[in-house]
Amino acid sequence: MSAGPNAASPAPIPAPGTGPVFDIQDFSVVYRTPSGDVRAVDRVNLSLSAGEVVGLAGESGSGKSTLAYGACRLLRAPAFITGGSVRYQGRRLAHGSQAVDVLRLRPDELQRLRWREIAIVFQSAMNALNPVLSVRNQLLDVIHAHMRMPRDEARERAGSLLDLVGIPRSRLRSYPHELSGGMRQRVMIAMALAVEPEIVIMDEPTTALDVVVQRDILAQIVELKDRLGFSILFITHDLSLLLELADRIAVMYAGQLLEIGTAGEIHHEAAHPYTKGLLNSFPSLRGPRRELAGIPGSPPDLRHPPPGCPFLPRCSYGTQACTSVDMELLPVATSGDPEHVTACPFVLPDTPPRENPPAAAAGPLDVPEHLRLADELRTAVEPGS
Questions:
Q1: Pick from 25, 44, 113, 368: most CB atoms within 10 A?
Q2: Which pLDDT does position 355 carry in this prediction?
Q3: Is the pLDDT of residue 362 over 90?
């Protein structure tokens, strides 16, 4: 895993089996608009090892889906990739010891890579499934597009895919509108696994499902991953899901990664204030009762991002020094794991929030506007204000 978004040029590609199967380095994406470029993804580094589950968490609009779709070159104008590399090195790769840079592949090479090597479970299964094709025909389309297989064998494979995700084979004749939300989501997972990919990107696969169906699908995802051996990049705004599912968790905000660590480290030793805010936004099932606390304010305008840490206007730990932090991911000083990294150099897991930030002490002319707004937000949510 790379040290941070401002790291130097990527290291040489490792031999098979010694490095990540999917490696995103210094990756940036902008959306071109008449009023300026929106920096949706800003110099992100993230890796995925064979058989690993990496969770990508953050608010809506933080750049999670843009990162995943951009890495697979699925974005269209006005989105543009402005820098970085995306290296894939799977077991079936025909290039021997050399990984491939996805950003440099020809259209025909991309077509062979997508779904056969890297599959995606898209958001909103009802919109992702074709409403005028049966489940069988949609599964067969994927199979025939990427594998040479006799028709009868392909039909049997389509049935076995439904077996994998716990749907009766009689549903092969059904159309998407005849299925429940949970069944449609399972069909999408079956479709993603149809040609045995090495990586499955799951973009909000359980959104809008009730908690019982959600838990069933998550348990099934883990079982399939263990049985088939693929890697997962799991994207969600619900950090509580990733604490149960993921091996490592990357927290994203305003197009940048703010913290990366194992699920246990993120849960018990969160260092970045934004990560702490996400953890406080859902109830704990064990231990003493605590008051839930949301994160006041809104994400910044990415056409004109503030200097330093983008989370500063909403941060209860913020100081004037945060306006000049370079957002490099560095090891958490109190962690025994050098791969537990954070972009905040001022906060450790046991650092208490500042109850009365002295932002006004510098004088009204010396305090940036977004710091004054942060003070107003904190004052508005304090008890008795």
A1: 44
A2: 62
A3: no
Interior/surface letters 262-276, b for 16+ CB within 10 angstroms, e for the rest: bbebbbebbbbbbbb
- What is the DSSP pairing of strand 248-253 with strand 256-262? antiparallel
**289 CB-near residues (< 8 Å, 6+ apart):** none
> Tokens in use for 336?
């025994």
Strand residues in 155-307 grouped as ranges (E): 199-203, 231-236, 248-253, 256-262
Question: Residue 376 — pLDDT band, cuts 50, 70, 90?
Answer: very low
pLDDT value at residue 108: 92
**CA-to-CA distance for 167 and 88, rounded, in angstroms?**
32
Whether the pLDDT of residue 15 is over 50: the answer is: no
The pLDDT of residue 159 is 96
Per DSSP, 11 falls in state P
Yes or no: say if 255 and 77 are a contact pair by the CB < 8 Å rule.
no
Task: Identify the H or E element spanning 137.
Answer: helix 135-146
Q: Provide the token pair at 21.
A: 């199967």
Starting at the edge strand that comes first in sequence, how are the strands of the sheet with 231-236 ordered? 118-121, 199-203, 231-236, 53-57, 248-253, 256-262, 341-342, 330-331
How far is residue 32 CA from its own chain's centroid? 22
The whole-number average pLDDT for the span 204-210 is: 81
Q: Which residues pair with 100 in a beta bridge?
A: 88
Query: Cβ contacts of residue 339 below 8 Å, gap of 6+?
Result: 1, 248, 260, 261, 331
The rounded distance, in Å, linking the Cα atoms of 61 and 235 is 12
| Interval 70-120: pLDDT, tens | 999 999 999 999 999 999 998 776 545 678 999 999 999 999 899 999 999
Instruction: Indicate the helix (H) or strand (E) that contains 326.
Output: none
| Alpha carbons 270 and 279: distance in angstroms, whole number | 9
**pLDDT value at 8 more than 50:** no
Q: If residue 238 lies in a helix (H) or strand (E), which one and from where to where?
A: none
Measured between alpha carbons, how far is 236 from 58 in angstroms, rounded to an integer? 7
Residue 331: in which H helix or E strand, if any?
Answer: strand 330-331
Rounded CA gap, 29 and 202, in Å? 20
Nearest to residue 221, comparing CAs of 196, 176, 190? 190
